[in-house]
């Protein structure tokens, strides 16, 4: 087409529908309208190639810059090699629009059926997303979130993503996202904040992980965060963002207030927790307002409809793709023992001291009462833990109170001790590490004694207790240790059938006990190095190292851990566990068991609970564990999953405190046992039955459909060899050098500066090893290689830069030859999109298609140009010039796609989205209307009281104002739903084109 003349256009000849070159750099636009202003200026309204509308005034002097575009301005004279390279780079960059599970193909994970269904069946179809993922512990929610995040990044639906997690889990999140998904997220550290002193740290770091309390407690950071907008926010352990009804008022924690703010600044919001329901329906619905304020407005006791907004799957229902149970059985066994006479004397003496201290605290009242009570219960639990723990605790407490007495005498006594609310601990509002810190800080200092005389009385008691504890310690008759050592000597537990040592985890609540056991177990085994220990004081990097040793090193047999160390750890290398100390919060029992009962566990998980049966607390625990064992025969391991919810009305802590203070009274004891029987009997049964109804199940048909979806995804998947050949060619063109080393692995000695500058994430100057195949990422004992695939910053930067540098060839087009076609066709790459009336994209897809001389469009496969050859030099020119239908082929293709393909695409996307929006409309209308009516009714009652001269709890004016506000909210929400329900297709966007000839079209 080199001899074809350029057709310049006179301004008077401009007509709607004409394709014009010269209005925008390197782009052809379609004229919509032309409006003259005098004789020498015309206002042009036009549509860009991307489908957007724009306007420009053109003057007579610019007339010679405009020309009629030929077949979309394609000259078809680009090098076929260049065209194939850039077209392939473009296809790979848009892979998320045609590979239905691209994140699976480019991540180092083997997702399971329930994970695939969650990500591709529940999360991705919902736009915008508001969802609570509440699968059981150990089901791999982090894997699901990672797949979802990566999928949206690859589909260009997400550019800014914030992950909010408890402090103890942020490092794990960063590691998981990097090692499993190749995603580089920054941690919001003080160093990062300080390095960007005059900038908004949230605006300059688009992929960020932040600690929940770092955000909730720092007003400056919250103010910065509130100024930003995010595409996606993920909150892990989201149940900690709790609010509670107290009387008639809502008490919002700082974390809940953070959750409310996050709801307003993001398009997609994903909450994750294995314990969404504390057992109090009103509080649960308050929590759900973080997802949809309108749908869960107000206080209602009846169960909420959570369809479409929450998914919960039970461990026992999870299956592999072959239909086998994913999780093995869980068995718990109680190991009762009785204290020796000397141990029992110490128990009685300390219990008397604790009880008297509580009584004194009761007389003080207020928040100080709770703080002293908390410290004394810690002392009681250390008494039950080990002789070492109680001895050292009593010594430290004595020393601390001696110092306090001296401070009072010297007139240097400091501020009063901090106050604490025990309910916060039972509501899981604090992490195990925070609780451990609070216990260490308050145990030695909190006392009801306020004068020197009162302190002298308490110190006299303490010194006597220290002597008794020292006698027990020196006697060496620790009955609890005797039970544990017997378990550790059991041959069946020490080694497996092949004689290999088994691994076992021992949980304790206290560091003194942990260090005591480390020495005792090391001596028993004769191998001190076989025992590792983690507690809240161990730095996170060291925790990871210890966990790696325990998991991978067969010589490390025993892991000792406190709850603070247990959060977030994956310890399925072991299947045996001992609760040396039983936690007073029943949620912790499942959380501990969940460390070993996780995906990848193939052995039956066994738990031994050590209980001193001749103590007041021991009687409560014994009764509880007996009832649990009875229920387990019917419901299996599920009984552990809802134990915390069962004690929502009467916390286990309250029963244990009653046992300590009044346990010798028969009526109190009987009442406690009645509560346990009803809670763990009927209460647990009701919770499990309700849970079974609320949870989802995978049927055989579901598994079959998921297998088919995986097979289809594999068929459409971008193969690693395509990514490899494109990257190597593109990287070399851009001045980079990549050298082959071991099989499937390469070295990159230098990444050019202009490539690094093109990236959206951190790109190194060189890479020791990279690969394009997951199987070569970490083979044998070789160093880990970076997986270069969509999502990796270097890979994406190279694709973007090659398109930027050589993208003109996509507009020029080229001429190819196909052995399978019988006549010339135009090959086009097309993006199709469905959007709603708010302008939000609902669905997008990318595909190649052939256009024949009649404008009819046929699917062309994922990359048909790869199977085509370049036309011989100059041979195609005459053929192309002799195809007049090429001039408007793209217009005809666009019309054909609009008339024939887009209606089907809309019909495919619309139904599910409409069903969700219709359901939301119904629930929101019902909830807000009922709340408004309740407020109006209360307003009428308040008005009547005011008329009588009485003062109501809330004025009629305030209640009426709230009712009006709800009415306004309802109207706004319904208007938004109207816009979201109105879906339509955008005009198809043709990104590139090539002329493809048959062999017979070439001149002989």
UniProtKB/TrEMBL annotation:
GO molecular function: helicase activity
SMART domains for this protein: DEXDc, HELICc
Annotated region described as Disordered, given as residue ranges: 935-960
Comp. bias regions, Basic and acidic residues: 943-960
Record's protein name: Helicase-related protein
Cross-referenced InterPro entries: DEXDc_RapA, Helicase_ATP-bd, Helicase_C-like, P-loop_NTPase, SNF2-like_sf, SNF2/RAD54-like_C, SNF2_N
Domain Helicase ATP-binding: 122-294
Domain Helicase C-terminal: 487-648
Coiled-coil blocks: 445-472
Keywords: ATP-binding, Coiled coil, Helicase, Hydrolase, Nucleotide-binding
